[in-house]
Structures are given as C-alpha cells and as structure tokens.
Amino acid sequence: xxxxxxxxxxxxxxxxxxxxxxxxxxxxxxxxxxxxxxxxxxxxxxxxxxxxxxxxxxxxxxxxxxxxxxxxxxxxxxxxxxxxxxxxxxxxxxxxxxxxxxxxxxxxxxxxxxxxxxxxxxxxxxxxxxxxxxxxxxxxxxxxxxxxxxxxxxxxxxxxxxxxxxxxxxxxxxxxxxxxxxxxxxxxxxxxxxxxxxxxxxxxxxxxxxxxxxxxxxxxxxxxxxxxxxxxxxxxxxxxxxxxxxxxxxxxxxxxxxxxxxxxxxxxxxxxxxxxxxxxxxxxxxxxxxxxxxxxxxxxxxxxxxxxxxxxxxxxxxxxxxxxxxxxxxxxxxxxxxxxxxxxxxxxxxxxxxxxxxxxxxxxxxxxxxxxxxxxxxxxxxxxxxxxxxxxxxxxxxxxxxxxxxxxxxxxxxxxxxxxxxxxxxxxxxxxxxxxxxxxxxxxxxxxxxxxxxxxxxxxxxxxxxxxxxxxxxxxxxxxxxxx
Length: 484
Known about the structure:
It is a single chain. This protein is α+β, with helices and mostly antiparallel strands. Helix content is 57%, strand content 11%. The longest helix has 76 residues, at 200-275. It is elongated.
C-alpha cells in the first residue's frame, strides 16, 4: 500500500436537500401573480417602510435644532414628520399582521393594494409639506411606479402610475389653483408670486415635466419588465417540457428494466444448470464461455436491481410508506451477512463495534443504504483489508453509524460528485470494472428521504470513511415514536 504523508484527507458532507428553484413571476399579459410571490412582496414593502419611517423621524429631530436648520437654508418642519411617521408605523403593523396570517390570496392582494394606496396618499402629504412644485421631491413617486412595473403587469402598473399622477395633480390644484391648501415648502424663501419659481407658467411646466418623466419611466420599466417576465415564462415552459420528457423517459426505462429482469434471471439460471451438468458434461472449451455468460448475467441482474431500487426511491409514494422502530445492531448484522460472500472472495474481514441505538424508518430502505455502503467498502478495499463498522449514540443521543475501509480512497476534487448517478472515478474504474455507479445515488436518496446527515472523509490509497448521523428518536407516553 502506498503511503504519502503529504496527501491530506478530505471531508465532504452530503446536502440533505437539493437547491430549491425560486418560484418566479409568470405574469405575462396580465396573468395574476402567484400567492407566494404576492406575500413576499407584501413583506418586502413592510420592511422597506421601516426605513422610510426612520428617515421621517430623523428629519423631525433635525427640526428641533433651529440653528442647524437655518444653516441648511430650511424652515423648521414642525410636527408633521412625527405625525406621518406615527401613521406609517400604525399602518405598517396592521399590514404585517395581515401578511403573517394564513389568508386566501384575495386578502393578500387586498393587503398589497391597500399598502400601495396608503403609501401614495402619505407620500402626497409629504410632498405637499416639502414643496411639490418648488423641489424635486415629486420624483419620489418614481419609486412606486418602478416597483409596480417590476411586481405587476403593465396594466396594473399603469393604474399605479395614474393614481400617483391624480394625487399629485389634486394636491397641486388644491394648493395653487383652488387655494384650499396654503402653499408650503421646507426651504426658506418667499412663497408668493414674486418668486420666479412660483409663477403659474413655471408651476404648470414643472408639473407637466414631472408627469411626462413618470410616464416615460413607466413605459420603459414596464416594457423591460414584461420582456423579462415573458422570457422567464418561456424558460419555465421549456423546463416543464424537459422535466415531462425526462419523466416519460424514466417511465419507459423503468418498464424496459422490469421486462429485462426476468430474461436475465432465466439466462443466469440456465447457465447455472449447464455448469452443474444438467445437459451432460460440457466440453472444456464451453466451460469458460458459460462461466462468462453466468458472470455477465449476474452483473446485469445486479445493475437492473439497483436501477429499480433507485427508481422506486425517487417515487413520491415511497415517502408515505409506514415507518417503524428499528434496532441498529440487528439490521447491521443482517446487512453484513449479505455482503459477507463478496468479502470472502476478496479476503476482506469485518471489524464491528456496535451498540444498539433506535432508528425510525422503513427497514427495506435502510437495508439498501447499509448494503450499498458495506459493498462499496469491500469492493474498493485492497485484498486482505479490513472494513470497520461502528454504531453508537452521539452527544445528543442521535444514532451514529460509521463505516470505514482501508481501500483506494477518493481524490479530494472528486468527492462531491460520488453521489451522482452513474458517476465513477478513474481510480474506481481501474479497481473494479463491474459497477453501475448507482450505489451511492441510492444512498443519497435514502439519506435525503430520512434526513440522515452523511459526512465522507477520504484519503487516496488510504481508505474512506462514511459517517451517518440519524435523527434522534423520541418516544411519548403512549408508546408512539417520532423523530426530532
């Protein structure tokens, strides 16, 4: 055995779950938003609103220092920032309470549109106090317009834009045309017609320019957003078709595999009969041919069995199978007995140090898990090597099973891929040519099904260790068992 002290062992932990695909907006040509996305938007608006409340409160406290306000060329704002911040806080708490309650999608939509309407009203009040036509504050409406283009269809985002224009027009008309509201601004200076910035023609021009810019921004943002959503929709549809095609191919492969299982078993049985002299003594030239037929059939039958196991584990119906309490030592001893013939052929011995720990699951699935790990440990061991099996409770009473060998090991850069279907390292293929590469894929499926944490540690030509941490088993007063 080659020993190189410069080669370090590498560890890797199998992720329990695949990366979930973010459900994105399939909003094309006005298709309604999904409820999950709507709820995320509602919560996002609520979180962003706390920042706005903080800015208003900070501006209100700034007004308590007249000297600083004068140096900035501004008028003291008075109490209106605190009042608006208080109103926003109260409404935000209500919206958050509604968003965190399990409600029908129509209520989520009502919540979102209520937030938008409330924000536009409050923003109009803020714009009035800051000075809508004397400052650039009116462009704050663009925040809502752009967000509406991102989150909504073009029709709904146009409604938000029209709402903003209507509120701004109503506020400006009440202030400068109807005289219902007194003109106001946070900046020091004359609030009369003598200021050129407040002449009617300038005010009208400012209003029209602001509205024109809003409409241009709405058009560009909604157009680009609709293009992105349409592309997302096309990608989603393509992905759905690919998944459907993959599932159809898997069904055909599974059916074909089922059909091949019986013929190969029959060929293997007949080859065994020929070897045993059922049809008379075989010629010397025929014996190795029949042995090769028998060996190949045995190998293909094993591969078919693993393909069927993997297909069954991938089926959603497997998760609903009844689970029972399993004693780890009994199960491991049975699995070792199944792998023992392979170990004897390779001169590999088992060394077991096992204490009984309770597990919860489907016994057949755990048998698949341990048999594949034990078989791999034996197959990839050097002749005359040892495979160590340890079973013990962990620090939190969780069942821990460790299976380690002194075999060929796995290169560090290849460890994350060993759980892929049909993946085999170059070293593994050189050591054993008769493997399907499905054993660890089966292990992965079982581990993810039962939330078993698997940690792999390996060093080339020095062996590999698989550490399995099972969920803790609890038993209530009624004798029912469950996992933490």
